Amino acid sequence: xxxxxxxxxxxxxxxxxxxxxxxxxxxxxxxxxxxxxxxxxxxxxxxxxxxxxxxxxxxxxxxxxxxxxxxxxxxxxxxxxxxxxxxxxxxxxxxxxxxxxxxxxxxxxxxxxxxxxxxxxxxxxxxxxxxxxxxxxxxxxxxxxxxxxxxxxxxxxxxxxxxxxxxxxxxxxxxxxxxxxxxxxxxxxxxxxxxxxxxxxxxxxxxxxxxxxxxxxxxxxxxxxxxxxxxxxxxxxxxxxxxxxxxxxxxxxxxxxxxxx
Length: 261
Ligand code: SAM
Known about the structure:
- This protein is an alpha/beta fold.
- It has one domain (10-184, 226-259): Vaccinia Virus protein VP39 (Rossmann fold, 3-Layer(aba) Sandwich), CATH 3.40.50.150.
- The chain contains ten helices and seven strands.
- It has a seven-stranded mixed beta sheet, with helices on both faces.
- Helix 3 (39-51) packs across helix 4 (68-84).
- The longest helix has 23 residues, at 187-209.
- The radius of gyration is 18 Å and the shape is globular.
- It binds S-adenosylmethionine.
- S-adenosylmethionine binds next to helix 1 and helix 4.
- GO terms for molecular function: 2-methoxy-6-polyprenyl-1,4-benzoquinol methyltransferase activity.
């Protein structure tokens, strides 16, 4: 390609991804809003509504970055709490909720921790920030009720390893959910989207974050990510059942899901 990123070796790829997110950490949330015109918020809402979070759950959000998905999961659980006016017994259940945010980049996690403090309301207790690699998780086998990864799997070196690890840490009955930028197939929309991502995104990256290359790399990585059907087969190959996906905005993003039965 004209971007020169195609020939990157594996170690180099990991290093580059970690550089990209170190560079973008402080501008990350703003850039998300700008690049997606705020839509990423709705996509994350959709992801969490598919998860069906419940009080007391143990959940792992991998590549969790600054905590967007984790905060939503906790909000969903706590909104049920306020409606139910639960008694003391149920209160204990809420206190057992654990949402682990795992990310390879400490800068992203630090932004997330700061956000958690700013939000207050005792959420800090249920949120655990863990520096770690999606390809080699430090969590025990069969320990999680749910696993999410949002805009994260596209950047890893070995997708298969990430899926195998997701399968390993989930309990039987646990759900795997992946939100990722995917492939648009609608013809005219595809051309518009290509123009938008190859021309506008790197320009925005330069303007807002002073970093054109990182954003160009991110766009390029979307092209290389397997199409919806291929990715669904990979999830099934990792052992998941009832694998399905939902396209949002014509495939700009898709949500894949699978169950460990
Ligand atoms: N999930 C968050 C969200 O949707 O706002 C953050 C997504 S951000 C685009 C991708 C994140 O993946 C970055 O925070 C990056 O550090 C992390 N990441 C990249 N490779 C990883 C790996 N091998 N293991 C864990 N996290 C990784």
